[in-house]
Write a structure and sequence with these properties.
Distance between the termini: 45 Å
Radius of gyration: 19 Å
Helix content: 55-70%
Structural class: mainly alpha
Organism: Corynebacterium occultum
Number of strands: 0
Protein name: EcsC protein family protein
Number of domains: 1
Mean pLDDT: 72
Number of helices: 11
């Protein structure tokens, strides 16, 4: 029996990324690659996307811009899930072809979830310039209450008396070295959780006669709704208003990175 992914992840900088990727399984590898893409994405791409939305809706409050992000993310997730499920209606598409389509759709979902999380953090004034901090933000949102509990435990003496800090505040206080340890432990948990969730929705999407299309869209919408709820809890409240005026309409071009045009539909 091959060793589990957990055995390759050690605290601090002692992890073996290549061994981790080999042993993580298909869904786990998708998560690792999506995480790497989100972490390597330029901060300006994320900030420019939020600024672009503000320029298109200059009178919107932070809460209203967040609603746009929620809507775009949910629409993309639902559309991609239905598209993959509908492919099962095509005669002769075959199991392997359907599985390949699901693999691509899962990558798109994880990419969108990662981007959505970091954009939502930026909207709250969180510093997203440090790659490892972006990784921590994404992981804590994917994990939900489990990620929140872990950051609370690892915060230790960072707590202010007996008051529990929001996860995003705790993450902002960790040193880069400490973040490496925290991220390794959260990745260990996330690999198990994402594999389970993706696997549960995977079976329904290859069902024939159009059933897959319904299950695909419903499953992805449910996952997207969970990510949105986790982000609201982990990232904390939005500011009541922006501290800077919205960019003039037409002054900010929409970023062209990867899936962003589909994200905005």
């Amino acid at each position: 029996m091959p060793p589990k992914a957990d055995s390759y992840i050690t605290d601090g900088m002692g992890s073996d990324p290549q061994s981790l990727e080999r042993s993580a399984g298909p869904a786990g590898r998708m998560l690792i690659k999506a995480m790497d893409r989100a972490v390597s994405m330029q901060t300006s791409t994320i900030s420019r996307y939020v600024d672009f939305l503000r320029s298109q809706h200059p009178d919107h409050s932070p809460a209203q811009i967040q609603e746009l992000l929620n809507k775009h993310f949910r629409t993309l997730a639902t559309g991609s899930g239905a598209g993959v499920g509908a492919s099962a209606m095509i005669p002769g598409i075959g199991f392997l072809t359907g599985a390949a389509a699901i693999s691509a759709e899962s990558v798109l979902f994880l990419d969108a979830a990662a981007f959505y999380t970091v954009a939502s953090a930026y909207l709250r004034g969180v510093d997203i310039s440090e790659p490892e901090r972006r990784r921590a933000l994404i992981l804590v949102v994917l994990l939900g209450s489990k990620g929140n509990a872990l950051t609370d435990i690892l915060a230790g003496d960072l707590k202010e008396g007996s008051r529990t800090l929001p996860p995003v505040s705790t993450i902002s206080r960790f040193s880069v070295a400490r973040l490496g340890e925290v991220n390794n432990r959260m990745m260990r948990m996330a690999l198990k959780q994402v594999t389970k969730k993706m696997g549960a929705s995977w079976v329904g999407k290859i069902m024939p006669f159009g059933i897959g299309a319904v299950i695909g869209s419903v499953a992805n919408r449910r996952l997207a709704t969970k990510v949105i709820a986790n982000a609201a809890e982990s990232l904390g409240p939005l500011p009541a208003q922006f501290t800077t005026p919205a960019p003039a309409k037409g002054s900010v071009k929409e970023p062209k990175a990867g899936f962003l045009k589909r994200f905005r539909r």
